[in-house]
Amino acid sequence: MEIIIHLGLHKTGSTFFQKNVFKSFDGWHYIDRTDLEQFKFYVLNTSEFNFSLNRAYSIFINLFSNNSCPERVIISDEEFCGMPYMGAIDRKIIANRLINIFKKDELKFFLVLREQQALLKSLYLQYIKTGGTANPVEFMNFGKQPLLINSNYFLFYEYLSFLEDRIGEQNVLCLLFEEFSDSPYTFFKKVADFIDIEFNYEETEKSVKNFSINPVFLRIMIFLNKFSRSYKNPFGFLPFGFYRLYSGAIIRCSVWLKFKRQDINMLGFNQTEKLSLKDSNRKLIGRMDQASLMKYRYL
Known about the structure:
The chain has 13 helices and 5 strands. The chain has 299 residues and is α/β, with parallel strands linked by helices. It has a domain of 195 residues: 3-Layer(aba) Sandwich (Rossmann fold). It comes from Flavilitoribacter nigricans (strain ATCC 23147 / DSM 23189 / NBRC 102662 / NCIMB 1420 / SS-2) (Lewinella nigricans). This is Sulfotransferase domain-containing protein.
């Protein structure tokens, strides 16, 4: 069985790929995230003392009717690359588990990167969108669970080289989110070549989008989030429906009013972290197109 695991990263178009693209790949069986939930939960949340490769593989095989496995399977969930709000400290454990679970199969990884400062901003907006209450300074400096923003999450070369060392460079496709934004046809041509199919992106439905909030609404939403139950604050005083009401209104305003996107004050890496990230990005040269890395400010 050939298996492709799309790892994310977070905020790199994963929802769009899952809803619009993967299901359109001829000859490949895409497992929806809802159907994948039990397998993902076991891989991500089972302790080392209790984890069993055989049990994990059995859960996966049981996803198919009559245990009749397709020859080519795609699964996708950005949590497989570790949770950014928890420092992704289990990233290596998760990768090793996936590799060992499918050691008898032909395994490939698909990974999408995003320039680190833009990724950080998008992660913060997503955090607020889902009910977070930390301001930018608190977000960057709280430094412990349940809000641990670790710059190691953004060291792309180290993660990519680990995956390539484990299963071979030819079995890992790594692309840039900015390429997808600028030239989706070229982006998906590379994906199609990697998995050996013909794919016409122009015929793909493009209706599913994951809208973010505009930074101009940050203070309002942070204030309201402190009182309401939400994904990030499940024990708030006001009911979850109130969160759904005001968050939906803010997202609609972000889409309709077309405010110019703004930088978020005090949200960024310190100088030591910036140097470390740039050094990691320079090591990507040779594995990825240098002109693209320069164009999109990775270097």
